[in-house]
Amino acid sequence: MQSFEPRELPPESYRNKIEAVACSISDPVQKLRFLKRAMDGYPEKNGSGGENSEYDVISVNRSPETRTGRFGVSGYILGLGLFMIFLFGGGILVFPFKGTNKNHQKEYSRYIKDPQISHAVHYPDVTPAKEAVALPPVEKKELSPEIPRYLDKLIWMVEKSDDSEFYSNRLKINTTQTVENIPRGYYLFKKGDGKLLPQGVFTNQIKGVLYHASESDIFAYRPEMTQSIKEYSRLLIRYLNKKKSYHYFIDRFGKIYRLIREDHAAFHSGNSIWADDEFLYLDLNHAFIGVCFEGKDFETNKPSDTAMKRGNQPAIVPMEQSSINEAQLISGKELTDWLRVKYKIPQNNCVPHGLASVNPYDRLIGHHLDLSHGFPFDFFEIHNKYEEPIPAITEFGFTYDNYFVEIFHGKIWPGIAASEKIIIERAKEKRMSVTDYRKMLNGKFKQIFVQTKNRTAVRNEVLSKVDQPGT
Questions:
Q1: Measured between alpha carbons, how far is residue 309 from residues 118, 167, 409 in Å?
Q2: Is residue 411 scored above 70 in pLDDT?
Q3: Which end of the chain offers a freer environment for a tag, N or C, measured as fewer CB atoms within 10 Å?
C-alpha cells in the first residue's frame, strides 16, 4: 500500500538543479514526469538529503522520455545561429561595401554619358538628287551660353504605329494625313560680299524651320464649340493637303499632323529670303520645314471715315492677342526640339514666316505677315528675331514702304533699324553712297533670284504639274 507520510524537501541547491533542468523541457507532460522522478529518487540516491548531494540530476533528464525536450533546445539554438548567419549575409547583399558601390556607380555613369543612340531610332536615308553635291565645309562655331545645346540633347522614337509616332520628349505626330509632293532639291549660295558661286550648290539638306499661322477663320475656344472646332480643323487639313502647303500642322487642341513627308518640299514660303552665318536661302520651300499653327494674329481693319477718304489705311491690323493657345505652343516646342536635334538646325534658322517673306519685284520685305508680331521666342528658346538684322535687307538691300509701317502703327521691328545701320556702315567701308550700295545688293539678288527661279521651275515642272501658290 502506498505510503502518504510527509517527505523531507531536498536542499535548495538540489532544487535549483531540478528547476534548471525542468526549464529546458518544453513538453509539459515530460516535465511533470521528470519532476516526479527527481523528487521521488532523491532519498534513494542520496539518503542524507544534504546540500552536498551528488545526485546526478542530468542523468534523470537523460532518460528516454526527456530526450525530445533537450533536442528542442539544441534545435532552437542551432536555428538561432543559422538565422544570424543569414541576416549577416543578407546585409552584405543589401548594403554592399563602399568600394563595390563606387565601382557600380562609375560603370552606371559611363553608360549614361555615352548612350548607344544608334539602337534607339533609325531615320530613313534621303536619296540624294542626281545633281546633288556635297556642301562646302562649314567651320564649327561654339554656341553662345544663352542658346540651349540642342545638338547634345537626346530625343528618340519610342513607338511607331500605322497612324502615329511617339517620341521621348512627349512629341506625338499623327501620320494619317501624310502625302507626297516634290522631292527636295535647291540651290545654295555662299553668304558675303565676295564673288558668288557661279552655279550655286545643289543640295537637298533641311536647314531650318519656318513658322506660319493659317490666318483662317476660327471659332471661340470654348467647350460648347468643341465639335465645330474639330470639324473646321478637319476641313482645313483637307484643303492644305490639296495645296501641299505645309509639312506640319498643329490644330487648336495641340494635335500635330504631318501633311507632307519631310524629304519632300512643301509650298509654304512663297518668295522668301533668309541667311545664317554661312549661306543664303532663297528657296525655303525646299530648304526649310514648314510648321503651321491653326489660328490668326491679324484681323480686318475697320477704317475710319477720314482714312477711307484718304485711302491710305491698311486692310489688316495686328490683333491685340494671338489666337495661338498654350496647347499649340507646347506641341510646337516639342516638334521644334525634335527637328533641331534630328537635322542639327541652329537657332538662327528658326524663324516666323513674316520676317522672311518678300516681294522680289519691288524689293520689299513683309509680303506675308503671319507671325510677324507676338511670336514667343523665349518659350521656344531661340533668339528674338524681331530684334535681329533682317537678311533680305543686309544681304540684298531690300526695304519697306509706308503701307508696311501703317500696318504696325509705326512700331516696326527693331531689327529693321539694326539692318539699316549695317547697310550704312558697309557702304561707308566701300566708299559708296547708301543708294549705290543698295543698288549693288539689288543686282546681286537679281542674279541669284533669276538663276534659282528658272532652274527650280524647270525641275518642278519635270517632277510635278502642281503650281506653287503665293508666288
A1: 66, 56, 19
A2: yes
A3: N
